[in-house]
Design brief:
Blueprint: E1 20-21, H1 38-49, E2 51-53, E3 72-80, E4 94-103, H2 113-118, E5 128-134, E6 146-147, E7 154-155, H3 171-182, E8 189-194, E9 198-204, H4 216-230, E10 234-238, E11 242-243, E12 246-247, H5 248-256, E13 267-270, H6 277-288, H7 293-296, H8 305-316, H9 324-336, H10 343-352, H11 358-373, E14 381-382, H12 383-390, H13 397-406, E15 411-412, E16 415-422, E17 427-434, H14 450-465, H15 476-491, E18 494-498, E19 513-522, E20 535-540, H16 545-559, E21 566-571, H17 584-587, E22 590-599, E23 634-636, E24 643-645, H18 664-673, H19 676-681
Helix pairs in contact: 5-9, 6-15, 9-14, 10-13, 11-13
GO molecular function: zinc ion binding
Domain Zinc finger PHD-type: 621-667
Keywords: Metal-binding, Transcription, Transcription regulation, Zinc, Zinc-finger
Length: 710
């Protein structure tokens, strides 16, 4: 020990040494000190738990960029997945969360495409965007690094020079890697949150997406807890999730009543083609309540594959399947919770004896065996034929169905009853098997393999739910209603999670601070010049009006680019209050405050940051009722320039749009004026030139401001 008279040095705040558990984060300690808005919480979170990647001191001075700071800064937050395979003693795999801070002012993509189609296109452009990324297990960054610009060798982030050619690592190399990271579509998680707390979940990939340890449920639960901890306000997601090649938003809505993301509070946000939350719910109810008897009522022979498949699962289920929801719920249950082999018959028997006596069950078994003995030779008898032959002798029908389930394996003289699953006819078949036969009798119905279940699920999905491949059936009005409902469910892709709703009504957990939601209006500008969501301010209870003005100025200057020269002038309705007046005497521990201010100087250069939609001033007026961009394919009228959905104009998504397009309104006007042909042949259309209309189809999580065609 060394003792001297020097004062002890203050310990620096260090990044957490022990990684958090991914499945339980943040727990009791991860969210300590995160009581403010997102713009403040994200900085605290990164300083406590983040490890800078390629920080400024690491790179050589000569490698520094020409601008003041790089366009992207990256942190790594390590996690550990406990009980990854459910067995104790197995080493827990590591997972890293990458947080990229994007400086929008220097970014190549100033405007947010996601905000444009979710209803936030009028929000001002934020100065910062934060990307939360979990890389795919097969492409972990810890083993990759930055590629050398000269020889292409992969280098560790701690290296200042290439080990092969001694080339110096530059910021351009680092930022090129970071840009590629943002464009990678294989991430297990990729979410974006703007500095104002509005965010977008771009993708979640579980086991089917390449994850080795994490399921989609694990990743979504982590993202949900992370958003709550950081006080994210709203998060949108475009639900284009797939399950076994099927649109999961349609399948999950039919089986559960809401999309898969609804398990974490995501609700209907904005519907394409002017759909509303009420029309979405009506479509769910219409399609999921469709009666299965519609498909089984026909007496035509031979029976169709659809009828055989429905009858198969109706016969396997211990409960009566009446609707489409019942059918798909049962199939999903078989996929996720398969029967436990021989025990299923025993469990079913216990429940059955509560309704029927043992004598009734034995008598029913004897009747079925009698019909099987009457079969000539070793022929198989289908479930349907055996049930039809026994239905008059065994009543009620529930007793007969139960008997057909438990009779498998029943020992009779010189043999036993066996059953098999016929892949071709999609039926269960029975016969009496001699004792010396090589076919082993099992005391339960044959179990379907996972591959068979997935095959049947996809067949039923295509036949009953998918509007493109839905099979024809009667009555025609019922099918048309089901078809329209399926289209509506597929068209409702934009979902929103409102994290800020409970915050509005909660008191601060810290008794020494107060929370105010601040609304700002600009002087000398029209009311519709800018649309600002309120900003949350957390300040000490002894704060004054002067402190409030100072904090509001700083908050809006740091959050929005257009407010870089913003200054607060006065509080609305409290113009005469002195700057030394305590805020708590006016608003209490929580409340709403209206601020009036102005942006000094020439604001023309900052005008491009007024809206996330950019400088475009498009007009949408489609026949379906849509008044704004909804992410669907559109085209502009060559006469008036108004945008319309291609689908509403009778153009299928798989078809190319016409070289010229004139909407119905302009067509009728031209006809009345007798200039229909002249208006179309003119080389000078009033509307947007076709060369300016971009051809774009929405990709997973990435689409143009107006997903248009030309």
């Amino acid at each position: 020990m060394v003792v001297n008279d020097r004062p002890q040095k203050r310990a620096k705040r260090r990044v957490t040494a022990t990684p958090f558990d991914f499945l339980t984060f943040p727990g009791d300690v991860g969210a300590v000190g995160l009581d403010g808005p997102f713009r403040e919480n994200i900085r605290i979170f990164l300083s406590l738990h983040g490890r800078p990647l390629a920080a400024l001191p690491i790179l050589a001075p000569s490698a520094a960029p020409s601008v003041d700071r790089p366009h992207l800064l990256t942190w790594r937050v390590p996690f550990r997945v406990s009980s990854a395979d459910g067995r104790e003693g197995t080493p827990a795999p590591d997972v890293e969360l990458y947080v990229l801070e994007e400086d929008v002012l220097q970014s190549k993509s100033i405007y947010c495409d996601q905000c444009r189609v979710v209803g936030w296109s009028d929000h001002p452009v934020c100065g910062k965007r934060y990307h939360f990324i979990i890389r795919n297990d097969k492409s972990s960054l810890s083993g990759a690094g930055v590629a050398c610009t000269r020889c292409g060798a992969l280098l560790s982030y701690s290296n200042l020079r290439c080990l092969s050619c001694s080339c110096e690592i530059t910021y351009d190399s680092y930022e090129s890697w970071a840009c590629l990271l943002l464009q990678d579509y294989t991430h297990l998680l990729h979410g974006i949150v703007h500095a104002n707390g509005y965010g977008h979940l771009l993708r979640v990939n579980g086991r089917e997406g390449g994850s080795k340890y994490l399921t989609g449920f694990n990743i979504m639960s982590f993202w949900d807890r992370l958003c709550k901890m950081l006080h994210v306000r709203k998060v949108s997601v475009m639900d284009i999730s797939k399950k076994h090649g099927m649109d999961y938003r349609l399948l999950h809505a039919v089986t559960v009543g809401h999309p898969w993301y609804g398990n974490w509070g995501y609700k209907f946000g904005t519907g394409s083609f002017a759909l509303t939350a009420e029309s979405y719910q009506k479509a769910v109810d219409t399609l999921s309540s469709l009666q299965l008897s519609i498909f089984l009522s026909g007496t035509r022979f031979p029976r169709t594959q659809l009828q055989n498949t429905i009858s198969l699962y109706c016969s396997l289920s211990d409960c009566q399947l009446l609707t489409i929801r019942d059918l798909f719920c049962y199939l999903m249950q078989l996929l996720h919770f398969p029967p436990a082999g021989h025990k299923s018959a025993e469990v079913a028997a216990v429940g059955a004896l509560c309704a029927w006596s043992r004598d009734q069950v034995d008598l029913a078994k004897a009747t079925v065996i009698k019909f099987l003995r009457a079969v000539v030779g070793p022929q198989w008898v289908t479930w349907r034929a055996l049930r039809r032959a026994s239905c008059h002798a065994i009543k009620p029908p529930e007793l007969l169905d139960y008997c057909l389930k438990v009779i498998v394996g029943e020992q009779v003289s010189n043999g036993s009853i066996v059953a098999r699953y016929n892949l071709d006819s999609k039926t269960i078949e029975y016969r009496l098997e001699a004792t010396n036969s090589q076919l082993t009798a099992t005391p339960c119905l044959p179990r379907l393999s996972r591959g068979q279940l997935v095959h049947d699920l996809r067949f039923l999905y295509d036949s009953l739910l998918n509007p493109i491949t839905m099979q024809p059936y009667r009555p025609k009005t019922v099918r048309e209603a089901a078809l329209n409902s399926a289209f509506k469910l597929l068209d409702c892709k934009q979902l929103i999670r409102h994290y800020d709703e409970p915050v509005l009504n909660l008191l601060p957990t810290n008794p020494f601070v107060m929370a105010l939601w601040c609304h700002v209006e600009l002087v000398d500008y029209p009311d519709d010049y800018i649309v600002l969501p309120p900003e949350l301010l957390v300040m000490p209870v002894e704060a004054t009006i002067f402190d409030l003005k100072k904090m509001v100025t700083k908050a809006f200057q740091e959050t929005y680019l257009i407010f870089q020269r913003f200054k607060v002038e006065q509080l609305v309705n409290y113009e005469d209050a002195s700057d030394v007046t305590p805020i708590k005497t006016l608003f209490g521990s929580r409340g709403m405050v209206q601020i009036r201010g102005r942006c000094d100087g020439n604001n023309q250069n900052l005008g491009q940051y007024r809206k996330e939609r950019g400088l475009d001033n498009w007009i949408v007026d489609c026949s379906c009722g849509a008044k704004d961009d909804d992410g669907e394919r559109m085209m502009a009228c060559d006469v008036c320039g108004v945008w319309h959905h291609t689908r509403c104009a009778g153009i299928d998504d798989s078809e190319d749009p016409p070289a010229r397009f004139v909407c119905e309104k302009c067509t009728s006007i031209c006809k009345r004026r007798g200039k229909a042909s002249g208006g179309l042949e003119n080389g000078n259309p009033i509307g947007r030139c076709q060369d300016e209309i971009r051809s774009s189809f929405a990709r997973a999580g990435s689409f143009e401001c107006l997903t248009t065609v030309g």
